[in-house]
Specification:
flat; mainly alpha; 3 helices; about 120 residues; single chain
Length: about 120
Amino acid sequence: MKKLFKDKRIIVVILVIIAVFLLIDFNQRMVLLTRLRGQEKQLTERYAALEDTREALETQIAFANSDEAVEQWAREEASMIREGDIPIIILPSSDTISTEPLIQPPTVDEVQRWQIWLELFFGQ
């Protein structure tokens, strides 16, 4: 009968050791899962940002290939006009008004030495 108890204790100790190793492995797997989920979230956000960028670039390419873009460039940057348009050229005024304030040099009062001594002894 004692041998049966000893065998049961050994089996229980072995089962406890196995359970501890399984818990340690489970804990490591949970830490790994948490880290992988964080990486998945970051990559999903980055993918969404890249998709938005791609869509914006496709929109810009579509506009650049349109006739409206060519006309806008011709009128604004190349200063071209259509047939029948009346060009208006704005010239700068000939008498420009300076907006800078005039800087006056600071005035320095000349003080004589006798005035300094007078102020030192009899000053207020």
